[in-house]
Amino acid sequence: MSQAAAPTEIKKGLEGVVVDESAVSKVMPETNSLTYRGYAVQDLADKCSFEEVAYLLWHGELPTKAQLETFTKAERSQRALSKPLLDSIKLYPKAAHPMDTVRTGVSYLGMEFTSKDEETWSPKDAFKGSPSNYDHAVTMLAKIPTIIAADYRCRKGLEPIAPKADLSMSENFFHMCFGEVPHKDVVKAFDVSLILYAEHGFNASTFTSRVVASTMSDIFSATVAGIGSLKGPLHGGANEQVMHMLKEVGEASKAEQWMLDALKNKRKVMGFGHRVYKTGDSRVPTMDKYGRMVAALKGEKKWHEISDVLKAVMLKEKDIHPNLDFPAGPAYYLMGFEIDMFTPIFVMARTTGWSAHVFEQAAANRLIRPLTKYTGAAQRPVKALAERA
Ligand code: COA
Known about the structure:
This protein has helices spanning 41-47, 50-59, 65-76, 83-91, 98-113, 133-155, 169-178, 184-197, 204-214, 219-230, 238-249, 255-264, 284-298, 302-318, 325-335, 342-363; strands spanning 25-28, 33-36, 39-40. The protein has 389 residues and is an all-alpha fold. Helices cover 54% and strands 3% of the residues. It starts with 24 loop residues before the first strand and ends in a 26-residue tail after the last helix. Strands 1-2-3 form a three-stranded antiparallel β-sheet. Coenzyme A binds next to loops. Residues 234-235, 238, 268-275, 320, 323, 325 line the site of coenzyme A.
């Protein structure tokens, strides 16, 4: 039987490559828009809670009141961590990046919630089994914020604060971090950020999760891998870098020169550019609107004044638009979060998208295994150690 020649065309970074089908979200760069299961994200952000959006991503439809009640009850009842996990968080190195600690915490959850029985790892039907893959996704949705908040408190030498079941996910996260729930508009802005960060097609971390799921590994492993991928500054880590940049610029009067220098020095400016959107990120105006609301409440306009100048100069000089991380960074800072918490917050949100994609991958699985074009040494004989010079 003759063998077909291996394809040799390389698509660096898989740019422009359509790898699979997905019904979870649609990214439309031609109109700068994004829909989750057919609903525009702006619409979802204005009218829904993060919990409703999580339900939508996993079930394909927005919940009825009764369905939402069942869903939130399941999530709220699982927020607490086991004592061994909480004790282990207390032992994490205090100088570790919170993305590393949340990655380790989720890995620990995997040990607590998966069995050695490979049959249960990647069921074709996400809702089948006890616990099902869906149950695992709810477990992670409930416990990841608690891991992040407990680790934050431990790093500061404070006692973790137990979750409260009578609060929404966003309210509870503030409660677990700071011991209080802020003004409702701040909570709404945070909730909106989670909605906007929840899902975005075959981005790097989601693709990573799908690759892991395609080997029929378990959903915790897929999530741990997603977290590792999200950490990088070209992906989720950018929201932290944006705030470091705004602080480095310092004041609006210095922003124009700062940007011109950065561009002259061919510096990658964090929070700008996107692999798919080239004329604007659909999520930016919504996050910007809610971020400015928080700034007004806090009476702190500085970060938006700097942002406005940076954006205008970048557009004029390079026609490169801001991405979601650009308004999200200062919004989180104004809400009181330390900068290294920004990407872990992104994890809280994106765990919904990752799980939706793991369900989809498992339902119609094909091992993801691309090819490489070999550029190494030609085949050669192995010399015994004594013969090697
Ligand atoms: N700052 C400065 N220049 C940028 C830029 C940025 N943030 N983003 C893109 N460019 C420039 C590139 O240098 C390149 O210029 P060149 O043609 O003169 O070499 C051109 O725009 C095309 O960019 P490219 O790197 O091919 O785009 P990409 O699709 O590979 O990259 C990102 C997309 C997101 C990786 C890239 O825009 C980036 O690194 N952004 C900063 C990190 C960030 O905010 N990430 C979050 C993404 S949601």
